[in-house]
Amino acid sequence: MAKNSMNRRHFIAGMGATGLGFLTARSWSRVLGANDRIAMALIGSGGRGRGVMRIFLKNPGVEFSTICDVYEANIAEGIKIAGEHAKSTYEYSEVLDNKEIQAVLIATPDHWHGPMLFDGMKAGKDIYLEKPMSYSIKEGVKMVKAVRESKQIVQIGMQRRSSPAVQAAKKIVTGTRDRSRRPSTFRGSWIGTDSRRPASTNGLRTGSGSASGETSGTIPAGTARTRGRI
């Protein structure tokens, strides 16, 4: 194992640094293929899905063998990133039926997250699921229960919990011993580069993100700001 170009420690550390850590020691021996590679598939090859796929591909040994989307233009863009070896399909069931694929990245519209998670776990796939996790609270409860009862590894793409910047901010807050001086609120901002939106007088582009404060690749957002309790 020490001679492998990608061991479990390096892979997990690398994915954790990008907010994408989802494979654990107990799944490592099952996930690695004969050539010490992880064969993945992208389901939902929109802007966000392709962006996250690029981050996964920064890890040696990871490849995307299949690109799945209902829009042909998205498939074409996804294959440009995955490589010409990648296959394409309009049917996500074909991805789940492929025994050579160990893990899937799901970045479809919100209402598909639950059904695809259930089907993916049933097919024995480990899953990275983009935010928001569920379409409703009721569905979310069912999803959590199903994951806990499954042997599969599931990670929700929530940078608010895993990004180095947010973790550093948490250390500042929890490291302040004097409660009277401890911050109780936070404010986060994303500066967009969308040239279609005019810049304001202070140089920031106007725009908005979702209710959770996370911007989506499908939204030409400029600046998203959120406030919340720590």
Q: Work out the count of structural domains.
A: 2
Name given to the CATH homologous superfamily of the largest domain: NAD(P)-binding Rossmann-like Domain
C-alpha geometry: globular
Give the second-level CATH assignment, the architecture of the largest domain.
3-Layer(aba) Sandwich
Summed over residues and divided by their number, the pLDDT gives a mean of 74
The level-1 CATH class of the largest domain: Alpha Beta
Main sheet makeup: 6 strands, parallel
Number of strand elements: 8
Instruction: List low-confidence stretches.
Output: 1-14, 16-31, 202-230
Cα distance, first to last residue? 41 Å
Strand content: 15-25%
Q: How do the strands line up in the largest sheet?
A: 3-2-1-4-5-6
The level of helicity is 25-40%
Using only C-alpha atoms, the radius of gyration works out to 19 Å
Structural class comes to alpha/beta
- CATH names the topology of the largest domain as Rossmann fold
Topology as H/E string?
A: HHEHEHEHEHEHEHHEE
Number of helices: 9
Explained architecture:
The chain has 230 residues and is of the alpha/beta class. The chain has 2 domains: 8-161, NAD(P)-binding Rossmann-like Domain (Rossmann fold), CATH 3.40.50; 163-229, no CATH class. The protein has 9 helices and 8 strands. The chain has helices at residues 8-17, 25-31, 47-56, 72-82, 92-97, 113-122, 137-149, 159-162, 164-174, and strands at 38-43, 62-68, 87-89, 103-106, 126-130, 154-157, 185-191, 223-229. The strands form 2 sheets. Strands 3-2-1-4-5-6 form a 6-stranded parallel sheet, with helices on both faces. A two-stranded antiparallel sheet has the order 7-8. Helix 4 (72-82) links the parallel strand 2 and strand 3. Helix 3 (47-56) packs parallel to helix 4 and helix 6 runs parallel beside helix 7 (137-149). Mean pLDDT is 74; it is low at 1-14, 16-31 and 202-230.
